[in-house]
Specification:
Layout: H1 5-44, H2 50-86
């Protein structure tokens, strides 16, 4: 059995270790609660997720490219019709 100053230091070291563990647990709990509140807040804002945004962006780019191709075809057909009308 340890006596004297060594025991006091041992008890103090154990107390500090326990306090550090408790503080770490409280930090994890606070982070978890903050993350849950942040997720709840963002969900209530009805924001679009990044994956959905990227999918819609890709669809819009594809539709734009198809519209451009169709416009070129219409221009070519109109030119052919105009040429036929001239003859």
């Amino acid at each position: 059995m340890t006596t004297g100053p060594n025991r006091i230091f041992d008890d103090f070291a154990k107390l500090m270790t326990d306090a550090a563990g408790a503080a770490q647990g409280m930090r994890r709990e606070a982070e978890t609660m903050f993350q849950a509140q942040a997720e709840k807040f963002l969900a209530s804002m009805d924001l679009v997720q990044r994956e959905e945004f990227e999918a819609m962006k890709e669809a819009a780019l594809s539709a734009s490219a198809r519209a451009e191709a169709l416009a070129e075809r219409v221009d070519a057909l109109e030119a052919r019709v105009a040429k036929l009308e001239d003859t």
